[in-house]
Amino acid sequence: MTQTRSTRITITLLRLSMAWVFLYAASHQVFSAGFSVAGFLGHTTTFNWLFAPLTAPVIAPVLSFLVGWGHLLIGLSLLLGLMTRASALAGIALMLLYWMAHMDFPYVDGPNNFLLDFHIVYALVLVLLIQVHAGRIWGLNGWAAGLPFVQRSRLLSWAAA
């Protein structure tokens, strides 16, 4: 697929915008004491049966750690354009889980969002980044794809494609 300069700029700006979303979230989760997913997950409505058990004292600290550091790693990956397909896939999974957690069917995070909200839009942007190989556009995926150990691994080759 040939891309014009303006298309490459737009894709890069979308990738960097999504990087900012994840890095900003991580800044409040990884670098501030006391972050826990328990408060948020304990107040879910539509999918409470799924999320409430994750607030247990044994699970919540582990999940909080994974969420915070997951946000940081996804953000850095998107920022650098390195292994963007894998990080975008993880980001899509998180966005769909957050969408579910915010849902009070049929509304999402209040009466102004009927079925859809920004989590779905973000997930769709991440799908686009996977499809257009966004990490190869002013990112490090092209370099990483040439490394011998990446070429030997199907998973790493896919992630750096």
Describe the protein.
With 161 residues, the chain is mainly alpha-helical. The chain has one domain. It contains nine helices and two strands. A two-stranded antiparallel sheet has the order 1-2. Strand 1 and strand 2 form a beta hairpin. Helix 1 packs antiparallel against helix 4 and helix 1 crosses helix 6. The longest helix has 25 residues. The mean pLDDT is 95.
Radius of gyration of CA atoms, rounded to a whole number: 17 Å
For the largest beta-sheet, the strand count, sense and barrel status come to: 2 strands, antiparallel
Total beta strands: 2
Give average pLDDT, whole number: 95
Uncertain regions spanning at least 5 consecutive residues: none
Question: What is the element string, with H for helices and E for strands?
Answer: HHHHHEEHHHH
Helicity level, as a percent range? Answer: 55-70%
Q: Which structural class best describes the helix and strand composition? A: mainly alpha
Share of residues in strands:
under 5%
User: In what order do the strands lie side by side in the largest sheet?
Assistant: 1-2
- What gap, in angstroms, lies between the N and C termini? 14 Å
Q: What's the shape?
A: globular
What is the oligomer described by this structure? single chain
- Domain module tally: 1
Q: Can you count the helices?
A: 9
